[in-house]
Write a structure and sequence with these properties.
Blueprint (H helix, E strand, L loop, with lengths): L5 E9 L2 E13 L6 H10 L5 H15 L6 E5 L1 H5 L3 H11 L7 E6 L6 H13 L3 E7 L6 H6 L4 E4 L11 H17 L2 E4 L5 H10 L4 E2 L16
Parallel strand pairs: 2-3, 3-4, 4-5, 5-6, 6-7, 7-8
Antiparallel strand pairs: 1-2, 1-8
Helix pairs in contact: 2-4
């Protein structure tokens, strides 16, 4: 099942300049229709993480970094993030393809974070290798504000659950405004996930916020070749 995977990518745009992409998030796909969760579960069952994850990164680096000047956003499993040897291996892979780690932003899901001490220790290994760092799915479970305030984060991706339907939900509007302000105040750049309705996009555009946006209203995941000429 682990053979035959391919990659799709979804752009992340600036809200105030939606023609300009911040970067492209790599999304794992399989011709048999297996979800990324199923593929990673099989890799865990086979004891192939993070070795298999390095194969996925290699494919994304070749398709995005070697073919463009774009920034690659790449999701890490908790195992790869916490493996102290993995940042060096990932850096060597990127550099062997003629790119720099400054063109890669690794995404760590808030769901996989356990303690602040563990998180900061692992994160520093990635920072030392020159990678950018994004906290993904923020607000989906614990909304760890201590991570945002205490760790070196370049981006914080606010979960779609806090974004979807915001145009018609005053409570979400207030909550989202507070999160955007707090994240920006910490020095990280907020990215809003799951912007999939035109009315939500229109409401967000009126806020004047300096944030990134990602969702179907802007672009659906696709082969990277569909985004570059």
């Amino acid at each position: 099942m682990l053979d035959g995977f391919y990659m799709h990518y979804q752009p992340i745009f600036y809200l105030q300049d939606p023609a300009q992409a911040i970067g492209y998030e790599a999304l794992l796909r399989h011709p048999a229709g297996w979800s990324p969760f199923d593929l990673l579960r099989e890799a865990r069952r086979a004891g192939a993480i993070p070795v298999w994850e390095l194969r996925v990164l290699e494919r994304a680096v070749e398709e995005v970094l070697a073919a463009s000047s774009s920034t690659l956003f790449f999701n890490l499993t908790p195992e790869a993030f916490a493996d102290m040897a993995f940042p060096l291996r990932a850096a060597r892979l990127v550099e062997s393809r003629g790119a720099t780690t400054a063109r890669v932003c690794v995404e760590i899901s808030e769901q996989g974070v356990y303690t602040l001490k563990e998180f900061v220790r692992s994160l520093q290994e990635w920072v030392d290798r020159g990678f950018f760092i994004a906290l993904d799915d923020f607000g989906m479970q614990r909304a760890n504000l201590d991570l945002v305030l205490s760790a070196h984060l370049d981006y914080v991706k606010i979960d779609r659950a806090l974004v979807e339907g915001v145009a018609c939900d005053r409570q979400k509007q207030k909550l989202l405004a507070g999160l955007v302000e707090g994240i920006a105040g910490s020095g990280a750049y907020p990215i809003l996930e799951g912007v999939e309705k035109e009315e939500d996009m229109a409401w967000l555009a009126e806020t004047g916020w300096d944030v990134g946006i990602q969702g179907f209203v802007m672009a659906r995941p696709s082969a990277f070749s569909n985004f570059v000429s």
